[in-house]
Amino acid sequence: MSKEKLKKIFIAIISIYTALVVSFYFLGGDQIKYKASSGNIAMPEATAVTDEIVAGSIVSQDFVNQIENIEQLAIVFTKFYRNASGIISVSLYDGNEALVRNTMKLVDVPEQSRIYLVPEEPITGLKGKKLTLKIYTTAKINHGAAVMMSKDVPDSTVNFNGKEIEGTLCFSITGFDENPIGKYYWHVVGVIGAFLAALLIYTYNQYLKGRSNYIVIAIAAIYRYDFLISQLVIRDFKSKYKRSILGVFWSFLNPLLTMTVQFLVFSTFFKADTQNYPVYLLSGVVCFSFFNECTTMCLSSISGNARLITKVYIPKYIFPLSRTISSSINLGISLIPLLLACLVLGVHLKPQALLFFYFLACLIVFSLGIGLFLSALMVFFRDIQFLWSVLTQIWMYATPIFYPAEIIPEKYKFIVRFNPLYHFIGNARTCLINGVSPEPRAYIFCFLFAFISIMIGAFTFKKTQDKFALYL
User: Fold this and answer.
1) What angle do CA 212, 218, 222 make, to 5 degrees?
2) Exposed, middle or buried, 337 (CB in 10 Å: 0-12/13-18/19+)?
3) CB under 8 Å to 375, separation ≥6 — which residues?
């Protein structure tokens, strides 16, 4: 490879990095600058109720606010399933100052459902201060309401007409805090960019001195064998769709058919709990189908090319790489029905939907890493192909593809948190369906999953590739 070509490649890498970090800053918006507050108060489970609140009664509870910016407060009432009349008012106080108030007719208060207090602008500057939640009503006896309570929260009391009651009202309070990553975003990306530039400059200078390293060797190999890679990809397409009437159209049709079957089976259970369930389901099907196809094809990429590998010298990683490229092209075709589903079902695609492709890129790199690892194992342990088909089935059901993650019991949620596919698919859905950027840590987690996977896969492949010829 000429030094001019290598220089152009390195300049292109820096340019792409700069374009990505600038685009991400504007697409990420407030999600980069802020994060869900760790001081949010979750709604406790109701185990009791207060006495009936009538005219002249006041229910209040003090709590220490740990949220920098308060966005919303919710509280749950019961009317004992009877007719109620009058008005009820819920207020949040800082001393004697009312911060936000919601006043409504008792007849309009839903039974055991949340009533929300939402300020016009987030309430700021009150972190660490004691706030008071107050409720009063104009209802007459037997026509009022009560507040749901929980007796399971220690060191908490409710004040009912001056009398202290152990427990807490069933209320929640949510908001957001300033995100340190967003605050120092340009500092962080600047340091990373400087490190990347220094690495590329060092690599280029070493190359001029006749000292190659893995970066130059990998780039040179891809350029040298680009024709072979393209031929392997074409071969994969031809063998996959050989004697097929619909041909490549199956890449378009397959996710739709899979989504239709799963939608008919599971929509009765999960449709009401999931926003835009068909798009939610189809996006999960497309992403997991790519992962399954890519890793399965990479699995046999070395053993399936034994005759070629044992006769001619070719960098062996080219075979799983070509399989990954082939699967990525199928993934691109599969995104067409996903886009059509978004348009038909009324999903408003915002500019933040472009961040969807970041998580797809992480998924592709992650799959390549798994593919490199599996292809090396397959040479020595042929049973891995049968074991992997079982593991992918388990992995599919352990990933929220057709069901929402919220239904998973709390004691099992650690399984989801350590599931890379949950993060790839879940964050991609957030960008596509909700039209917002996930928090910055979501990008870091997905990058780390992809990086760790490709490092383990590449290390395993490199350490074992010299022995492939002995076992093929």
Assistant:
1) 130
2) buried
3) 298, 299, 300, 301, 302, 303, 319, 320, 461
Q: Which residue has the tokens 């960098």?
A: 315
* In the chain, domain spans: 48-178, 225-471
The three-state secondary structure class of 402 is coil
Contact 401, 259 (CB under 8 A): no
Q: Counting runs of H as helices and runs of E as strands, what totals does the chain give? A: 16, 14
Give the pair of three-digit tokens for residue 274. Answer: 């999931």
pTM above 0.85, yes or no: no
Give me the amino acid identity at 75.
Answer: I
341, 278 in Cβ contact below 8 A?
yes
pLDDT of 237: 73
Torsion sign over Cα 414, 419, 425, 430? positive
User: Which pLDDT band, with edges at 50, 70 and 90, does 235 fall under?
Assistant: confident
User: Could you tell me the CA-to-CA distances from 224 to 220, 334, 338, 362, 440 in Å, in that order?
Assistant: 6, 30, 36, 26, 38
Query: Which residue(s) pair with 137 in the sheet?
Result: 88
Distance of alpha carbon 169 from its chain centroid, rounded? Answer: 32
User: Locate tokens 């399971």: which residue?
Assistant: 152
Residue that the structure tokens 């993650």 belong to = 405
| Per-residue tokens: 333 | 């075709």
48-178 has which CATH code? 2.60.120
Which pLDDT does position 246 carry in this prediction? 60
- Whats the size of the chain, residue-wise? 472
